[in-house]
Design a protein that fits this description.
The protein has eleven helices and 18 strands. The protein is an alpha+beta fold. It folds into three domains: about 80 residues, no CATH class; about 150 residues, Jelly Rolls (Sandwich); about 70 residues, 3-Layer(bab) Sandwich (Phage tail protein beta-alpha-beta fold), CATH 3.55.50. The strands form three sheets. Strands 1, 2, 3, 4, 5, 6, 7, 8, 9, 10, 11, 12 and 13 form a 13-stranded mixed sheet that branches. Strands 15-18-17 form a three-stranded mixed sheet. A hairpin with a 2-residue loop joins strand 17 and strand 18. It is globular, with a radius of gyration of 24 Å.
Length: about 375
């Protein structure tokens, strides 16, 4: 018999064996169970996803972030579970019978010329070209593990490398611009310095920031590059000399937005992230109180404005048609998309995600 998961806190989930096992080694049975539970108990989705986020933070070495919501002992226990599970599921070496060795050696001789020709024809990955072009001494960090690897940069910025990823930079670092080169995926927490922009070169694009937190995914074998913003804002543009003078070829991203760059067509597609989170603003900014999301005969325009402020996402709608509409609902535990569905259902509208914003189609109070 399963526990009453609908009453769980994020910490309760992280202390539950079934939840943790699913996050570390999902099975078809566990995937089906949790998908069914999330559909049956939508009010628990926010807490469940919060627990997933904390689990991923611990996997990626972001212990300071995890400890803002979990005790040090809970983080230590989870780290131990992660390490034990990774050790148990590390692929075993393949041991071949001795009598097969001779024909494997022969086969390798036949293949070597063909492999050499194939390697010769393969284009050099962009990351290797960029790294080779550096005249200065180069520092490089590689993550060969199955969890995130934390890398501290000389300016105080932090990079969490995903598995099978590399990051490098010229040494000494940041004499003019703070420039790093990425192959794979990484989360960047950049120390603010307006005098020295922080640049991430990843395949064919450049991400430029002054100080913020964002994720870049740029594996050499994938057809796209993705940049996702968690806080602050970033500029993303094509790394091509002919376009450098006209950076309008790129896009500007805010929290809860991402861009996907198609490497074949050279096209940017701006989107809203799959699960938008309430934006945490820097303490230096004017304090904005997070709405309660509990409404009683509240004007729809006020509800939409509160959603925009909380999530930092522009919402376009027919202000005249919805001016006198009202909402009575509790949306405390609803994810962003469900909040929008409730608002739209109230006025008989639909919504689309277009170019990093929400468009509400139709709707009226009649």
């Amino acid at each position: 018999m399963h526990p009453a998961y609908d009453t769980f806190t994020a910490t309760d989930f992280l202390l539950d064996d079934a939840f943790v096992d699913h996050q570390l080694v999902p099975t078809p049975q566990s995937t089906a169970f949790w998908a069914d539970w999330l559909e049956t108990y939508p009010q628990g989705q926010t807490t469940w996803y919060q627990a997933v986020t904390l689990m991923r933070a611990i996997e990626q070495g972001l212990y300071g972030y995890a400890q803002t919501q979990l005790s040090e002992e809970t983080v230590r226990q989870l780290l131990g579970r992660i390490q034990q599970t990774n050790a148990r599921h590390k692929p075993a070496p393949v041991v071949r019978p001795l009598h097969r060795v001779w024909w494997l050696a022969a086969a390798s001789l036949v293949l070597v010329s063909g492999i050499g020709l194939w390697l010769y024809k393969q284009p050099v990955p962009v990351y290797e070209q960029q790294r080779a072009a550096l005249n200065e001494s180069v520092r490089e960090y590689t993550n060969d593990t199955r969890t995130g690897k934390r890398v501290g940069l000389p300016d105080g910025s932090v990079v969490v490398l995903a598995p099978e990823s590399r990051v490098s930079y010229a040494h000494p670092f940041g004499q003019k611009n703070r420039t790093v080169y990425l192959s794979g995926e990484a989360t960047f927490a950049v120390t603010k310095n307006a005098a020295r922009p922080f640049l991430v070169y990843a395949n064919e694009i450049v991400t430029k920031v002054l100080g913020t937190r964002f994720i870049v995914r740029a594996f050499a074998g994938e057809d796209s590059v993705q940049v996702q913003v968690q806080s602050g804002q970033v500029a993303v543009y094509h790394d091509q000399p002919a376009l450098m003078a006209n950076k309008q070829q790129g896009v500007m991203l805010l929290p809860n937005q991402q861009v996907v760059f198609n490497r074949q067509s050279d096209q940017f597609t701006k989107q809203i992230v799959a699960l938008p989170q309430i934006v945490v603003r820097p303490a230096s900014h004017e304090r904005v109180t997070t709405p309660s999301f509990i409404y009683t005969d509240t004007p729809i325009p006020q509800v939409i404005q509160e959603l925009e402020l909380a999530y930092g996402i522009d919402i376009r709608y027919d202000k005249e048609a919805l001016a006198n509409c009202q909402l009575t609902s509790s949306m405390v535990n609803e994810p962003f998309a469900n909040k929008l569905r409730i608002v739209c259902a109230t006025v008989g509208a639909t919504f689309d995600r277009i170019d990093g914003q929400i468009i509400i189609n139709g709707g009226s109070c009649q």
